[in-house]
């Protein structure tokens, strides 16, 4: 189980006697070492396809031009956000006349004129950012066909091409991926993926290539040059952390060249020219505020991503950077000479260490797990493709829908959650509703449980009705309705029907996962209801609560807050969530009161909990670790905390590893002064590990 052979897609020697196939080896790794599945899949693909490498070798645009391009085939360069091949294209053009047209308002006709001119004279034309003008691309496609078609026909007939279009003519197109890009234009082009080399060193080199010596030395200020280097490092860290979503960032943020140009312009305005090369003080507070609020932070919608951003701003743009001349592994020169900074950047390693990005040592394992989950999802999508010619084939429907109907029947073998078969459950719900009306202090939590279970049973009834109608239709005992047709085609694509997601918007998009989790949560909720109906006080530290059982755990915590406010006779906004961790908070347990809860089955990502405090992960540490049971309660903000804020860090609590649903936040014990590290590590608590 701990052998490193799993990373190479191999099994221990003891398995050799089983004569397993390569695919069986892959399945075994998936079952026993899921964090190594992605590497095992790569090894399997390389061996099956008999390829030395899965990734194609990189090639310069100059080599591409010489080996694969022609005058009658446009070259479409598919770029990722923040990359720009313009400089490399201009260098590759060399002796050829080269013109660029940035697509936008007023440039559409000019682009067609430039193509015609270049086709006649033998120049190169680059139309940039076609994804901004997808509505106009059919016009462009028609014009391209009129330019290159005469040449193509003449070549096919073996005739003289008469230099039209000119043999040296090349049409380069750049675009970011876009769903509305015409497929016919895509098929007629030579397609090239253009990606910037990864890593902090390459990222900073690209930034300094966009600055010249005069720009870096402007004002003869070492402080300004240091601030520019700090900006380049800061921008590189933000971009490279996107390779580790959702732990580096919870989502992909488009930090682009536009951002760093705007940030550099701010630095220009804040640093006046000087005749002294001695570092002067800098307006760090203004720089941090403008970069956070005006440029980088405005697009962030997760408060903990904003905290990570602020932590890097405070760490990088400060007086310590100016005095110590060190940013991670980068040694900053006391100079205004661009060559000195480029030399310092060249000294960086090709491979970034996790700590250079502020990430834990085991982030590689987390990235492998996320990558394998994405590949498995894409493989499932390939299985779901249904040709348009047989979308209404009843025999196909019978074959493809059978597993869904069988799954639902298996999940509901007892039938206790189905309509007209859950009398005991409805009796409990009625008692709970009556008790909620009688007892004002208990009503918020009991009312929540009542609504939660009622909604779940209503959704189960809808699903059961839909699948039952489909089963009758396949047996020929009822006619097809529009509602049934929509559900059928969603299931054929492997997707959760829209009508089901309307009732549970955060449910899985895969229908089989949706059905399994729906039943599992409802069965767990049934136990919560029985406990609530049989006890005089539902909230208690004597019973363990798993928040992952609930459809809306964040709503439940707010309901507990409301109930606690009624019990204490205070306003809701006067309460804060307090947690009691084993072997950590001194004397906290005695202050929790009778509205406290014991929460179980929590998981920690980005750190480990040792001796009641957060500690660093090692490279071999599991991606997610189990946490001990903790107690939580809503307490008055006026009450003195039995621990200082410097002894804890506020961590987000997400529903699962995707971090798409923020439940709450909890303060967790840590060493004084280590809060910055845990924020940058992306440390978080999860209700479900996977």
TrEMBL record:
Residues 71-192 form the Dynein heavy chain region D6 P-loop domain. Residues 227-362 form the Dynein heavy chain AAA lid domain. GO terms for molecular function: dynein intermediate chain binding; dynein light intermediate chain binding; minus-end-directed microtubule motor activity. It holds the Pfam family Dynein_C. It comes from the Eukaryota. Transmembrane segments: none annotated. Residues 403-687 form the Dynein heavy chain C-terminal domain. One of its GO terms (cellular component) is dynein complex. GO terms for biological process: microtubule-based movement. This is Dynein_C domain-containing protein. It comes from Mesocestoides corti (Flatworm).
């Amino acid at each position: 189980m701990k052998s490193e052979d799993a990373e190479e897609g191999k099994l221990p020697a003891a398995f050799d006697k089983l004569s397993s196939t390569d695919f069986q080896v892959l399945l075994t790794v998936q079952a026993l070492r899921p964090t190594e599945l992605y590497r095992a899949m790569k090894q399997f693909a390389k061996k099956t396809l008999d390829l030395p490498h899965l990734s194609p070798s990189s090639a310069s645009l100059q080599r591409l031009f010489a080996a694969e391009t022609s005058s009658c085939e446009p070259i479409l360069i598919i770029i990722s956000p923040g990359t720009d091949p313009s400089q490399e294209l201009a260098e590759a053009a060399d002796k050829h006349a080269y013109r660029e047209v940035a697509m936008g308002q007023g440039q559409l006709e000019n682009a067609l004129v430039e193509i015609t001119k270049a086709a006649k004279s033998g120049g190169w034309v680059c139309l940039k950012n076609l994804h901004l003008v997808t509505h106009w691309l059919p016009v462009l496609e028609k014009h391209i066909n009129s330019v290159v078609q005469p040449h193509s026909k003449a070549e096919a007939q073996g005739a003289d091409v008469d230099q039209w279009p000119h043999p040296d003519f090349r049409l380069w197109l750049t675009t970011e991926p876009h769903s509305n890009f015409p497929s016919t234009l895509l098929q007629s082009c030579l397609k090239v993926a253009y990606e910037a080399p990864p890593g902090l060193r390459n990222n900073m080199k690209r930034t300094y290539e966009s600055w010249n010596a005069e720009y870096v030395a402007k004002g003869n200020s070492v402080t300004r040059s240091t601030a520019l280097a700090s900006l380049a490092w800061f921008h590189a860290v933000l971009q490279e952390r996107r390779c580790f979503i959702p732990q580096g960032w919870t989502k992909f943020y488009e930090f682009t060249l536009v951002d760093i140009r705007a940030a550099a312009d701010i630095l220009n305005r804040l640093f006046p020219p000087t005749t002294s090369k001695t570092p002067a003080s800098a307006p760090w507070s203004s720089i941090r505020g403008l970069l956070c609020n005006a440029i980088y932070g405005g697009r962030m919608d997760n408060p903990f991503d904003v905290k990570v951003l602020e932590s890097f701003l405070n760490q990088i743009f400060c007086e310590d950077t100016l005095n110590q001349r060190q940013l991670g592994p980068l040694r900053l020169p006391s100079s205004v000479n661009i060559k000195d900074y480029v030399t310092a950047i060249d000294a960086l390693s090709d491979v970034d260490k996790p700590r250079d990005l502020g990430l834990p040592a085991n982030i590689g394992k987390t990235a492998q797990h996320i990558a394998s989950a994405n590949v498995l999802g894409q493989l499932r999508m390939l299985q779901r493709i249904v040709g348009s010619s047989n979308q209404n084939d009843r025999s196909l429907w019978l074959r493809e829908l059978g597993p869904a109907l069988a799954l639902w029947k298996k999940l509901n073998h007892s039938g206790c959650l189905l309509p007209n078969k859950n009398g005991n459950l409805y009796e409990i719900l009625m008692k709970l509703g009556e008790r909620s009306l009688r007892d004002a202090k208990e009503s918020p939590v009991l009312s929540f449980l009542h609504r939660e279970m009622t909604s779940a049973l209503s959704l189960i009834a809808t699903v059961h009705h839909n699948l039952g109608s489909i089963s009758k239709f396949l047996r020929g005992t009822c006619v097809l309705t529009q509602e049934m047709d929509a559900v059928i085609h969603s299931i054929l694509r492997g997707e959760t029907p829209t009508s089901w997601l309307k009732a549970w918007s955060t449910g899985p998009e895969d229908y089989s996962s949706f059905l399994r989790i729906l039943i599992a949560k409802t069965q767990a909720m049934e136990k919560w209801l029985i406990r609530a109906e049989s006890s005089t006080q539902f909230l208690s530290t004597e019973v363990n609560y798993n928040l992952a059982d609930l459809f809306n755990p964040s709503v439940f915590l707010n309901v507990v807050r409301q109930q606690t406010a009624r019990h204490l006779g205070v306003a809701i906004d006067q309460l804060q969530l307090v947690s009691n961790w084993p072997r950590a908070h001194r004397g906290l347990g005695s202050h929790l009161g009778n509205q406290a809860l014991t929460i179980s089955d929590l998981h920690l990502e980005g750190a480990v909990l040792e001796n009641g405090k957060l500690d660093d992960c090692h490279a071999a540490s599991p991606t997610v670790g189990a946490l001990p049971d903790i107690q939580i309660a809503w307490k008055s903000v006026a009450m003195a905390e039995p621990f200082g804020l410097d002894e804890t860090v506020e961590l987000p609590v997400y529903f699962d590893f995707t971090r798409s649903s923020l439940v709450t936040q909890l303060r967790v014990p840590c060493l004084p002064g280590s809060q910055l590290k845990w924020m940058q590590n992306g440390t978080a608590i999860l209700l479900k590990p996977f």
